[in-house]
Design goal:
Number of strands: 15
CATH topology of the largest domain: Dihydrodipicolinate Reductase, domain 2
Strand content: 15-25%
Strand order of the largest sheet: 14-13-12-11-7-10-9-8-15
Bound molecules: nicotinamide-adenine-dinucleotide
Helix content: 40-55%
Structural class: alpha/beta
Radius of gyration: 22 Å
Number of domains: 2
Length: about 475
């Protein structure tokens, strides 16, 4: 049994790590929490049976009492990672830190050095490595499925509604409050490229911008908030009640499932909510579909099952704003081109306009081509061997609504197994998600941001030398 303390009982802290501990009580026990919001703190402490004297209003108070457990989980916002991580490592905690590890190159390097000095694990939550989808691709590539990798073309297709939620209305909409989207979101994808290609990057170019989610693109007569009598409420894809009250985009995901029962359920919840409400009295598990209380609704209010609380959040909070009248400044599309030291080239596209959330990848090698398509409703990996006609299906799965397609679960299993020295946990998963490995993806993100803003190709050796000298 591993014991842990939590810093930041928000969406990730409570709903990802806290929920995992509750589902695996024999493996992980939270014994303390630091969280300034009394409501969140009490919710977390109550659910995890934390003693009142182990509930703290901030990380300073938590760390002031010394080391209380094996692991410290840090799930505060992007700009609040460095300070608590340094303090936790200093006390001798192993640390699970949310990505991005920090928002400056200097702080990222500081964290790597501190974890190596302390001899403690600093695991960054690059959850995608632990999904069945990406670990299958990694195993295939490492096994030589495409021969020598020559080029990778990867896209991160963020759905129009997820992008609006996080990067237009929400917590990661501004660089000065969070970080550039290529770091906040795309560090996962840059990490995957580095993991698959297995060599440091040499050169990085990038183009992008905020083209669409801006005031000049608002339709005529649109109001600043959706519920202020906006004439477009009924036909706007970003209308807040459509996303947060009726969960239309999520139910539409169910409609795209290949299984009839998923399509019937989602269709009934969308088209005959009254009938569905009746049915949900017989089966409480259906209730969630008519009154969605999971992400993203769980981030707009601390009482996501309460319809009045949701209405209040939409009337008064940031998530009720028209997507064309927010104070966002992060890019809504960006492309990154990378040359790696082993000669492999890669392109990465990020955008916030997909109808279906997910990632596509195409890997070209000397002996074959691998295509992968990961969306919420379907996952498929296909391998073409140049010497044969038939394709090989490496993965073919339907709807997966688990956190990050099973990545949250995989990360926790791998982390806990590493404390037991479990030999079944592959070495590369262990070493490559070290803080030093994460530094590579973060440096790539800083380079891409620089390349875009300074309109030039960034030489990674130069960037590394600069960082090491600072
Ligand atoms: N791994 C992933 O794929 C993934 C997905 C989503 C978010 N994230 C990252 O996880 C982090 C947290 O995101 P979130 O959505 O849970 O944010 P959140 O805002 O819901 O939670 C952060 C919590 O930290 C608390 N906090 C603030 N100051 C504190 C202090 N001094 N001491 C203790 N707690 C404090 C806040 O009150 C809040 O409850 C972010 O860095 C985000 O980028 C990672």
């Amino acid at each position: 049994m591993i014991t842990a303390v939590l810093v930041g009982a928000g969406n990730r802290g409570k709903d990802a790590y806290g929920a995992w501990a509750l589902a695996h009580r024999d493996q992980l026990k939270f014994v303390a929490v630091a969280e300034p919001s009394a409501e969140r703190r009490n919710l977390f402490a109550g659910a995890q049976d934390i003693l009142p004297e182990r509930s703290f209003a901030n990380w300073d108070e938590l760390f002031a009492v010394g080391k209380l457990a094996d692991l410290c989980v840090i799930a505060t916002q992007d700009r609040q990672h460095t300070e608590p991580t340094l303090a936790a490592l200093d006390l001798g905690y192993h640390v699970l830190l949310e990505k991005p590890m920090a928002v400056t190159e200097q702080d990222c390097r500081l964290l790597v050095a501190a974890s190596e000095r302390a001899g403690r694990q600093l695991r960054v939550a690059h959850v995608l490595r632990y999904t069945r989808f990406f670990s299958t691709i990694k195993a295939a590539l490492a096994g030589g499925a495409v021969g020598r990798i020559v080029n990778i073309n990867h896209s991160e297709n963020v759905s129009y509604w997820h992008f609006a939620h996080s990067y237009v209305r929400g917590n990661w909409r501004r660089t000065d409050e969070a970080s550039p989207v290529v770091l906040a979101k795309t560090c996962h994808d840059l990490d995957l490229l580095y993991w698959f290609i297995g060599a440091p990057a040499l050169k990085v170019s990038s183009f992008g911008g905020l083209s669409f989610y801006r005031e000049e693109n608002a339709p005529p007569g649109a109001t600043a908030r959706c519920l202020d009598g906006c004439p477009h409420l009924d036909d706007c894809q970003w209308a807040a009640p459509r996303i947060y009250l009726r969960a239309v985009p999520l139910l539409q995901t169910g409609l795209r499932s290949r299984y009839l029962h998923n399509r019937l359920l989602a269709g009934a919840a969308l088209r005959q909510p009254w009938l569905f409400r009746g049915l949900s009295r017989l089966s409480p598990s259906l209730k969630t579909l008519v009154n969605w209380d999971q992400w993203p609704v769980s981030t707009i209010t601390d009482a996501p099952a309460d319809r009045e609380a949701k209405m209040r959040a939409l009337r008064e909070g940031p998530y009720g704003r028209c997507v064309f009248f927010c104070d966002n400044d992060v890019n809504d599309h960006q492309v990154v081109g990378i040359e790696f030291a082993n000669g492999v080239t890669a392109t990465l596209t990020l955008h916030g306009f997909a109808s279906s959330e997910g990632r596509w990848i195409r890997v070209e090698g000397t002996a074959g081509t691998l295509f992968g398509k990961l969306t919420t409703e379907h996952q498929e990996i296909v391998l073409y061997d140049h010497r044969r006609v038939q394709k090989k299906i490496l993965l073919d799965l339907d709807l997966d609504l688990r956190g990050h397609a099973g990545g949250d679960e995989g990360l926790m299993k791998s982390l806990l197994a590493s404390f037991d020295g479990d030999p079944s946990v592959p070495d590369d998963l262990e070493t490559l998600t070290s803080a030093r490995a994460s530094l590579e993806s973060h440096l790539l993100a800083f380079a891409a941001d620089r390349a875009q803003h300074e309109n030039r190709v960034v030489d990674m050796d130069e960037l590394r030398r600069e960082g090491e000298g600072s």
